[in-house]
Amino acid sequence: MPTDTMTATLALPAAAAPPRRRSGLAWLTPSLALLALFFVLPVLSLLLRSITEPEFGLQHYAELVGSWTYVKVLYNTLLVASVVTVVTVVLGFPVAWLMAIMPSRWSRFLMGCLLLSMWTNLLVRTYAWMVLLQRTGFINQTLMKWGVIDEPLALVNNLTGVTIGMTYIMLPFLVLPLHATIKALDPAILRAAATCGASRWQAFWLVLWPLALPGVASGALMVFVMSLGYFVTPALLGGASHMMLAELIAQLVQSLLNWGLAGAASLVLLVITLGLYALQLKLFPAKGGQHAA
């Protein structure tokens, strides 16, 4: 056999071998590296400083628990997040339900309005609410003109202003997942309930609400967790009397340079967030390949 033919025969298995496929993990490597470099490492560094500055120990956590000022800030944070979540669910459920049953053209229009509010700059939306809610703003002037009130209401620098502003901002984050859940439900289920004699309230409470509960839980968790860490809107609409934990952390880092106490407060937020996420996974486990219905 000629030498060239033998060489080609020996080289054939290597040439015919299929190209090696890149695993899915390889494609995720850049994203994972960025996540580790710009999120995980800074967070771990901040948490490490909470137990090493100025000396090793848990003195910052003891200060957070023992100081009434910090306990009140944590209480304000949980209170605002809870109120905003409840109000958002009450207002968002009818919107999501309406978007699911109305003609597609109007549903897309309403969806566009929600998305447009999300795309508007956060500072612009917050300052707009400051103008509307102040004592000489449009809302107070309109209520006084209609004779509903005699004196302007205090709608800013308190819990009311924070709740109004944050509910408006958080509403799309509840409506979008809830709309997807309700849209996936079979309308025949409600018709069957009505055929069996259920009233509208019974059809809602005994049929629609349990089926939509996973979407409500997902949206409510997202709203609550985002409210825990919100900074701009509570600072502008709530004033100093309703300081939240994110604002406290910013002051500790920027003004007081107390990185240790800021790290301890950050760990408190992180533990609350992970605890709520674990609770949701416990109550509403993921159903692989099945929708919520």
From TrEMBL:
Keywords: Cell membrane, Membrane, Plasmid, Transmembrane, Transmembrane helix, Transport. Its main location: membrane. It is a multi-pass membrane protein. GO terms for biological process: transmembrane transport. The keyword Acetylation does not apply. GO terms for cellular component: plasma membrane. Residues 74-280 form the ABC transmembrane type-1 domain. InterPro entries: MetI-like (IPR000515), MetI-like_sf (IPR035906). The chain crosses the membrane at residues 32-52, 73-97, 109-132, 153-176, 216-237, 257-279. It is found in: Cell membrane. Belongs to the binding-protein-dependent transport system permease family. CysTW subfamily. PANTHER family: ABC TRANSPORTER PERMEASE PROTEIN (PTHR42929:SF5), INNER MEMBRANE ABC TRANSPORTER PERMEASE PROTEIN YDCU-RELATED-RELATED (PTHR42929). This is ABC transporter permease. It comes from Aquabacterium olei.
